[in-house]
Amino acid sequence: MQTNTMEKLLTEITNLPQTSEPRNAGIKLDLDWALSAQANTSAIERRCASLPARRSVKKSHQAAWLARALTCIDLTTLSGDDTAGRVRRLCAKAMQPARQDILDRIGLPDITTGAVCVYHDMVTTAVSTLKGSGIPVAAVSTGFPAGLSPLHLRIQEIQESVKAGASEIDIVISRRHVLTQNWHALYDEMVAFRLECGDAHVKAILATGELGSLRNVARASMICMMAGADFIKTSTGKESVNATLPVTLVMLRAIREYYNRTGYRVGYKPAGGISKAKDAITYLVLVKEELGDRWLRPDLFRFGASSLLGDIERQLEHHLTGAYSANHRHPIG
Fold it and tell me: Catalytic: which of 233, 279, 299, 311?
């Protein structure tokens, strides 16, 4: 499949910069700016409802988009029955996210997922397994998923995960600060978390399904970025409502506004409920339309997912053979 589309993708993947952007340093809390954020829910929902039909991609173009999505996955296991063996298998899949015969026939170079995301107890196992691969380990922290443990314990949890080798920390904000409009408390909390992360990048999980309104999502996004978040993330994956296109549109526009005013590019991570390849393409298209091509790289965009990878691999094989294979031919760990 040596089309111009795939050749361009190969060039982009091979030449991805390691550190191409200045890290978001945060700014002083500007409540006038943050509280000016609004969200026209009906207009947002209309735009998102029309997107899948308006932006359908096929054949080699679809394969190229799916290959891009594959490199942006935070391959995740966050279950109570996680074991070291499961995490090692997940890491092996992250290092080779698709069967070698599929990669060879498409002409892709050696590619990996964006990161592996685990609970703190599994950080050491993941770090040792991924040593030398260049794949970062992300640890969920700060009383994940509820974020209701005492502040000093949440801070200590960050410290322990960084000490264990996590290079990304997914923190959960206190939703009550948003629901009670206590924006100073949200900002101060995020600043404290960012400080404890040190060199590790911090993803602020907003748990958008519990924030009550799209306007609250917009304001919480802006304040977390002001406090120095490297990424803003939709969900823990444990809420009843996780990533959605309307929430994504609101958060992407907040990222764009923040970049236009500060010059800092903040990343975006939709998480929870994204399990189909066609949905992944829709999210990527929305990111491209709102933020541009620069955000379609793993240093600025991630999917929080596990089963998504398996469906992408099946779709890539379908592109080559014209037939769908059984799920067991594409184990994800």
Answer: 233
DSSP state of 267: E
Q: Catalytic pick from 74, 269, 279, 311?
A: 269
Q: Catalytic: 30? A: no
pLDDT digits (tens, 9 = 90+) for 181-240: 999 999 999 999 999 999 999 999 999 999 999 999 999 999 999 999 999 999 999 999
Alpha helices in 147-244 (DSSP H): 151-164, 175-179, 183-197, 214-226
Beta-bridge mates of residue 75: 116, 305
Phi, psi of 267 (to 5 degrees): -80, 165
Q: Is 233 a catalytic residue?
A: yes
Closest CA to 284 of 76, 70, 113: 70
Four-way CATH pick for 25-320: 3.30.70.890, 3.30.10.20, 3.20.20.70, 3.90.1200.10: 3.20.20.70
| Known catalytic residue at 269 | yes
Every domain of the chain and the residues it spans: 25-320
Query: Chain centroid to CA 238: how far?
Result: 15
pTM score, two decimals? 0.92
Q: Is 166 helix (H, G, I), strand (E, B) or coil?
A: coil
Query: Tokens at residue 162, please?
Result: 């960084």
